[in-house]
Amino acid sequence: MKPKVTMIAWNQNDNYVVTAVNNHLLKVWNSSTGQLLHDLVGHADEVFVLETHPFDSRIMLSAGHDGNIFIWDITKGTKTKHYFNMIEGQGHGAVFDCKFSPDGQHFACTDSHGHLLIFGFGCSRPYEKIPDQMFFHTDYRPLIRDSNNYVLDEQTQQAPHLMPPPFLVDVDGNPHPTKYQRLVPGRENCADEHLIPQLGYIATSDGEVVEQVIGQQTIDQEEQGLEPSILDGMIRQLQQQQDQRIGADQETASSSLQNGEGTPRRG
């Protein structure tokens, strides 16, 4: 197999360069002379995560698709800590990304199963206040493209960035209590009634009908006399105002051309 570099990182003081190679080895190089100093052995699959410690020049973190997370002392070429991301009943979870906290006391990783793994010193009690499963209800909603090739949410026909803030749900789509909904940016100061999501029934690919959060009212629901979402109404009002401005500009441009004027200018 022809060796191929999959990732590269400098250490904190730039004295060393670490490369991940597709033969599952990590190589530590002297950045001034190019001399190979250490081969770091431990990974069993390709590595796409190399993170240097924010202030300790000796420390480098690596993580890969084999589910292994290593903390290395690259000056000695030795393993300091090791964690294997085993998921009960599902084998291991590939680690896709890792980042150190600014103080270097913690690091967080994300894996292929949608887990956020938090490592660090001290007690884990603060993290016990939140549910084990937290997803946005829009995470797996289908998207479509309009005639201009812009992406829209299939259900509401709106651009995703214009949609109201999503709701927090568990892995089965059940909404969390209102105290957790306030953790979502944009919902911090909402009244309690606005933190209770609307539920609907959808059919899965297996034909099973399940209850899930739908989040916003659609135009069809409004026609049926149901109360629309306040944010949806504001968004549509802004869109109408924008359409009116564009229409007025086009009328001004056409009248200027009919009067024999040159290139029309917007006021």
Automatic annotation (TrEMBL):
<feature type="repeat" description="WD">
    <location>
        <begin position="1"/>
        <end position="39"/>
    </location>
</feature>
<dbReference type="InterPro" id="IPR036322">
    <property type="entry name" value="WD40_repeat_dom_sf"/>
</dbReference>
<dbReference type="Pfam" id="PF00400">
    <property type="entry name" value="WD40"/>
</dbReference>
<protein>
    <submittedName>
        <fullName>BRWD1 protein</fullName>
    </submittedName>
</protein>
<dbReference type="InterPro" id="IPR019775">
    <property type="entry name" value="WD40_repeat_CS"/>
</dbReference>
<feature type="repeat" description="WD">
    <location>
        <begin position="40"/>
        <end position="82"/>
    </location>
</feature>
<dbReference type="InterPro" id="IPR015943">
    <property type="entry name" value="WD40/YVTN_repeat-like_dom_sf"/>
</dbReference>
<dbReference type="GO" id="GO:0007010">
    <property type="term" value="P:cytoskeleton organization"/>
</dbReference>
<feature type="region of interest" description="Disordered">
    <location>
        <begin position="239"/>
        <end position="267"/>
    </location>
</feature>
<dbReference type="GO" id="GO:0008360">
    <property type="term" value="P:regulation of cell shape"/>
</dbReference>
<dbReference type="InterPro" id="IPR052060">
    <property type="entry name" value="Bromo_WD_repeat"/>
</dbReference>
<keyword id="KW-0677">Repeat</keyword>
<keyword id="KW-0853">WD repeat</keyword>
<feature type="compositionally biased region" description="Polar residues">
    <location>
        <begin position="251"/>
        <end position="261"/>
    </location>
</feature>
<dbReference type="InterPro" id="IPR001680">
    <property type="entry name" value="WD40_rpt"/>
</dbReference>
<dbReference type="GO" id="GO:0005634">
    <property type="term" value="C:nucleus"/>
</dbReference>
<dbReference type="GO" id="GO:0006357">
    <property type="term" value="P:regulation of transcription by RNA polymerase II"/>
</dbReference>
